[in-house]
Specification:
By secondary structure, the protein is of the alpha+beta class. Helices cover 16% and strands 33% of the residues. The radius of gyration is 33 Å and the shape is elongated. The N and C termini lie far apart (73 Å).
Length: 481
């Protein structure tokens, strides 16, 4: 019995130790959360960074936050938990970053990944500083009983995310998006160049605009090189569908999510009355492109200068070679002066092909003016410089046709083909967004126009159609967190 007593004491001691260990394990706080005995201001940072881009859990992306101070507008009660994670541009934790959260006379300070609990709800200002990076600053509203997680990306770049819908609520997939700094306009086709390291990636603008990366579901993301005033612009190069008029002030820690709504495309149904022989066979829509007009005028001025100072064929060829070599120095052609080829055998840069064509055309025209070459330059354009065709359709036997995907709010002119007659509207027209409108056309009587010459006596009357879709929205952009 006396021998068994020490053994029983040892067993009891071991059992007590196991129970104590289990209880301590069960109450272990998660990584990054402050212990109850610690000050909420001095919570210890975690060594485990969160995945890239954890969103503020209580906010709806792309919606502006309220701006009222205090908790009166949000109800009473403290915030349950507010976690702040400072990270670098690749999503790694920055433990040396210092954070200051301020609400009135209340100031909370900490370093690295931090979690504050049981703090007052309402509007807070959060400032994060780290050596070598711009100061990150954001104002946000915390609601009672809220569990908020704020990811702060520190560095020279500003991350932007967003989504695009039209005024009918339809998501716009694969629609190019650009962010424009002051003095920069929507890029033209000539401004676009592919990535030399990966030709399959989206071509990048070279005029100073930031090209956004397009994702699924009408979403996009971009990284801005600096803070300041930026505008969003949506649409293919050379054909902006919508451009933000008043710039937004984008800062480190400021609004970084954008909800963009652009005008919905419209449809125009043409109706032609009268006998079949009086109806056109083809209808085309032209849109005015100011950038295209400017480029055409500059080209014509260059040709006019060449006519005043005619070159010989040799001089023209030297000028063409100079232009090609200049393009090669800019990375648009290869070192031999040819457009680079992609794996499909096509030119990987339209700029390169254009440089060769324009140089060749310049050489020919210069030589032609010198009387050393002959070539028919072809018929004159249908409309004045700056007008480009965007849609065309044949007229059905019933005398109707529909032109889809027309831009609302833009100047449109219409061109009609009737056998050898060419008719165009002298006036321009605008149509409402997201609607199917009806256009009634009046053409001159057959036989009163000179064949193959443009007659501008056509007229169109457009009746406003019904709204397409169930939801009507206003175009614009809303920035939020």
């Amino acid at each position: 019995m006396n021998r068994a007593l020490p053994f029983l004491v040892l067993v009891a001691a071991m059992a007590g130790g196991l129970v104590y260990f289990a209880l301590q394990t069960g109450h272990r706080r998660p990584s990054g959360a402050p212990d109850a005995s610690e000050s909420a201001v001095e919570s210890a940072p975690s060594r485990n960074p969160e995945p890239e881009r954890p969103a503020d859990v209580n906010t709806t992306a792309l919606v502006e936050l309220p701006t009222s101070r205090g908790s009166a507008a949000l109800g009473d009660g403290p915030v349950e938990r507010w976690e702040v994670i400072p990270m670098n541009s690749v999503g790694q934790l920055v433990p040396e970053a210092t954070m200051t959260a301020t609400q009135g006379s209340t100031v909370l300070r900490s370093q690295g990944r931090t979690e504050w609990t049981d703090i007052a709800s309402g509007q807070w200002e959060l400032v994060i500083e780290s050596e070598g990076n711009p100061t990150w600053k954001r104002e946000m509203v915390l609601a009672p009983k809220e569990r908020r997680r704020t990811a702060a990306f520190l560095g020279e770049e500003i991350r932007i995310e967003g989504a695009i819908v039209d005024t009918n609520g339809e998501q716009l997939a694969r629609t190019p998006v650009f962010l424009l700094p002051p003095g920069v306009s929507h890029p033209s086709r000539q401004d676009m160049e592919p990535d030399p390291d990966n030709p399959r990636r989206t071509a990048r603008a070279t005029n100073g605009a930031v090209t956004a990366e397009i994702m699924q579901g009408g979403r996009f993301r971009a990284r801005l090189p600096d803070d300041g005033k930026w505008r969003l612009s949506v649409g293919p190069p050379g054909a902006a569908r919508w451009t933000q008029q008043k710039p937004s002030e984008l800062t480190y820690g400021g609004p970084d999510r954008a909800a963009v709504t652009v005008p919905a495309y419209s449809r125009l149904r043409f109706e032609f009355e009268g006998p079949v022989e009086e109806r056109p066979s083809q209808v085309s829509a032209f849109i005015y492109d100011a950038e295209r007009a400017q480029q055409t005028l500059e080209r014509e001025a260059e040709y006019a200068a060449a006519r005043q100072n005619p070159m010989s064929i040799a001089d023209a060829q030297r000028e063409a070679k100079r232009r090609a070599m200049q393009s090669a120095e800019n990375g648009k052609l290869d070192r031999l002066g040819y457009a680079t080829q992609d794996s499909r055998g096509g030119s990987s840069t339209g700029t390169a092909r254009r440089a060769v064509d324009e140089a060749s055309d310049f050489a020919y025209r210069a030589g032609q003016e010198a009387g050393e070459g002959k070539r028919a330059l072809g018929p004159s354009p249908i409309l004045e410089p700056g007008w480009r065709m965007i849609r065309s359709a044949r007229v059905s036997d019933t005398g109707e046709t529909i032109l889809p995907n027309l831009e609302a709010g833009s100047d449109l002119r219409f061109y009609f083909t009737r056998e050898q007659e060419r008719h165009v509207t002298a006036a321009s027209y605008r149509i409402a967004a997201g609607r199917t409108s009806v256009a009634k056309v009046r053409l001159p009587p057959p036989g009163t126009s000179t064949p193959n010459e443009v007659d501008n006596r056509a007229a169109v009357s457009i009746a406003l159609g019904e709204q397409d879709g169930d939801v009507e929205r206003v175009s614009g952009v809303v920035w939020g967190f």
